[in-house]
Amino acid sequence: xxxxxxxxxxxxxxxxxxxxxxxxxxxxxxxxxxxxxxxxxxxxxxxxxxxxxxxxxxxxxxxxxxxxxxxxxxxxxxxxxxxxxxxxxxxxxxxxxxxxxxxxxxxxxxxxxxxxxxxxxxxxxxxxxxxxxxxxxxxxxxxxxxxxxxxxxxxxxxxxxxxxxxxxxxxxxxxxxxxxxxxxxxxxxxxxxxxxxx
Length: 198
Known about the structure:
The chain is an alpha/beta fold.
């Protein structure tokens, strides 16, 4: 029902959307999963034409991709290092017949950005620095991993063609190369919309 409403352009309350998740995943929503209204705004910016390929860098429980795939005509890919979250995301997509979404079990440095047109980044590497609200205890935090992933993200974005779009949420600007222009911000400056100029 909620996805049908999203497809119709009707906004969904965030707490209502989170009911699709198992209790232990729902409890993490306030800290780790993108709010529905943020996901809708970001997805509509990232998808300029039907079939645009959007990569969610660190997809978690798949919320951004599920919302984006429901409210746009883009194709959404979520890369996530936790296999259990990939399984949850894929099961939800299948259950709700969302066909323009795919979840990939991998680390970000195994993904080539040349396969995508636009990117969403909700500071997924920060869990390596801030351990106050872990998703689980299966991934050991590491500042070296944070630096490695951040460097890889920056380098891959640097190689993308002019016109590439990026939306970052609760993220610093260190991940975004200088070749990207900040077009505008929303949600008190926490949601930033970038386009590559050269």
